[in-house]
UniProtKB/TrEMBL annotation, chain B:
InterPro entries: Cyt_c-like_dom. This is Cytochrome c domain-containing protein. PROSITE patterns: CYTC, PROKAR_LIPOPROTEIN. It comes from Caldithrix abyssi. Residues 24-68 form the Cytochrome c domain. One of its GO terms (molecular function) is heme binding.
Length: 385, 68
């Protein structure tokens, strides 16, 4: 994603002025002083807090957006994109139930390092996300479908974005990556699977994206229902989708993907990211109606017992082991023929997969030795040995 | 004859309603909006040459991609 220049970030087009939103006076949404000279010196006066200037009106969507979009804003205020509640709740799981926002240092650390991933209406429909320094995406024109590159993967970039676009092809350790995701190659945008209802929420306050409303979570079988057909001639699907030991679709149809250890907060296991392909037990199997397989791909997430030490707060990850660090993953790099499903030149149809169990199954010996005991305890429900 | 009588009324009807602006519908919403007016906001933000003179570069030059 090419960054916007200083002028491009705030340039407004005639097309916007002729659009529905362009019929509103600037000060209706942005406040400020609309009667200042057009000079660099006067710029501060035009955008002064004393003049009630509002850079991002949609952060107050109940004031500025709800008059016309109340059907959405009434639900959005509890959505995970807006509240970041998933983050807070996952923190609690590892912190003995303590809420990080009750500690001023922790709250400040979150504000500095993590809050930029919060998204209001504007960050999907008019500007680029704050995490990439915003800027008007289409010269202030509003758009219904967010840009894959400049909105969605501006935040979901280092894993989902890179994998979906095939960015790892040719990189060391990613030799099994042959193509971008087949859906990307066919020109599908994120919204083809992740519809507006999922993004905006349903008004309920969910705590975790992996167990939210099943109606919102895209299922491969929404489009590929044939794999559930009892008369299918595909023996792999008969065995691993309909059989007694079931696999998440990605187990066979994903390519190598990225795991992370340390993160931008500062501490954590050394080595920021690395290529992986690991099959683990599906520890979420009984937690929702739609993640029902016995095995699933897992990736290491950037969390360690000392991840938040730099924040200087009083809350520690006292129950670190309460959730796996090798987390249920849905890599967005799907292909029909992968290094596991391509049987060309092999002795038997399952050779590629069953012959590589030592490499692809997550075992106790795979965990990082820096926090060996914590990693072993946290991932006990995921290990295959 | 009846048609000739109707012509002035038709003309008045067209004058009254044909030029009504769409913005009226929006302006009536909740009373928080005002009609569009020419301002220094529009004059500056639609002038790329001027913006290039007055807009200041970001310290970190803009982002590339997020963490998720």
């Amino acid at each position: 994603m090419a960054p916007l220049g200083p002028a491009e970030r705030v340039l407004v087009s005639e097309n916007f002025l002729n659009s529905v939103h362009g019929q509103l006076a600037c000060i209706s949404c942005h406040g400020g002083n609309p009667n200042t000279p057009l000079t660099k010196e006067a710029k501060k006066d035009a955008h002064a807090a004393e003049a009630d200037f509002v850079a991002l009106p949609s952060e107050q969507f109940e004031v500025y957006c709800s008059a016309c979009h109340s059907d959405i804003t009434s639900k959005f205020k509890t959505s995970l994109h807006y509240t970041q509640n998933g983050y807070f709740e996952r923190f609690k799981v590892r912190a003995g139930g303590q809420d990080l926002s009750t500690d001023s240092n922790m709250k400040a650390g979150f504000g500095k390092d993590c809050a930029k991933c919060h998204a209001g209406c504007g960050q999907c429909h008019v500007i680029r996300p704050v995490s990439v320094n915003s800027g008007l995406e289409r010269a202030h024109q509003f758009y219904r479908t967010p840009s894959l590159v400049n909105n969605c993967t501006a935040c979901h970039g280092s894993r989902v974005g890179e994998e979906f676009r095939g960015s790892h092809k040719g990189q060391t350790g990613y030799e099994h990556v042959k193509e971008a995701d087949v859906h990307y190659n066919k020109g599908m945008n994120c919204s083809a699977c992740h519809a507006a209802d999922e993004m905006h929420g349903d008004g309920n306050a969910y705590t975790y994206r992996l167990v939210e409303n099943p109606d919102f979570v895209p299922q491969c079988t929404d489009c590929h229902a044939d794999v559930l057909d009892a008369n299918t001639e595909n023996n792999y699907h008969k065995t691993h989708v309909q059989g007694s030991t079931t696999l998440q679709c990605q187990v066979c149809h994903s390519q190598t993907y990225k795991s992370c250890n340390g993160c931008h907060v500062g501490k954590g296991i050394t080595g920021s990211s690395y290529p992986t392909f690991k099959i683990g037990k599906n520890y979420l199997k009984n937690t929702s109606s739609f993640r029902t397989t016995d095995y699933a791909l897992v990736r290491h997430i950037p969390i360690a017992p000392d991840t938040y030490d730099n924040w200087g707060g009083s809350i520690s990850l006292s129950t670190f082991k309460a959730a796996p660090t090798w987390k249920y993953a849905t890599p967005h790099n799907i292909q029909r023929w992968t290094f596991l499903t391509d049987t060309t030149g092999t002795a038997w149809c399952g050779a590629n997969c069953h012959g590589q169990f030592d490499e692809v199954l997550l075992k106790k010996t795979d965990v990082d030795s820096t926090y060996l005991n914590a990693e072993l305890e946290a991932n006990e429900p995921v290990f295959t040995d | 004859m009846k048609k000739l009588v109707l012509i002035p009324f038709l003309a008045i009807f067209m004058v009254l309603f044909s030029c009504q602006e769409k913005k009226t519908d929006i302006a009536q919403k909740e009373g928080i909006y005002e009609a569009t007016q020419q301002s220094s906001c529009v004059a500056c933000h639609t002038n790329k040459g001027l913006l290039e003179q007055v807009a200041e570069p970001l310290e970190n030059g803009g982002g590339e991609a997020g963490e998720g």
